[in-house]
Amino acid sequence: MKPNMVRRDSTDVSGGSRPARHVVSPETLNALVAGTNVLTLDGALPVEYLAPGDRVITRNAGAATLLGIRRYRARVRLVAIKAGTLGNCRPDRDALLPAGQEVLVRDWRAGALFGASRALAPAQRLVDGQFIRVIGTREVDLVELMLDGPHILYGDGLELASAAVVPA
Q: pTM for the full model?
């Protein structure tokens, strides 16, 4: 899993004439299913192997230190995304996400679905029934990665929103 570009980006996530869009959902759940590989300074590691103090690579801030991790088992609606569906190596393997996990979309889907050049939207809003599908409600182990602010992480080659911010 290698991002095309890792850089500090203090500007808005938009890049063209159309603004970026954050699609808000009451079902937002920015947690990763156990087994998801997260890009860190030590390489791609399964999310369940991470611990507070580890440094993850983010799209918007370079490397960020994990301040907290919350692990739990829950019944959630899941979305499966086939490898390569959202671009070259995006995801880099078949991925499984909670339906409410926010995904940064930076291709034609952002314009077609949300009228923006880039959009941060729940995985369930990307469902097409063929390459991105809801596979039902299942009990899974989830891991929330908490950082010093909102960040976009790399999980299985996808750009995913981090969990809630740890209070200072």
A: 0.82
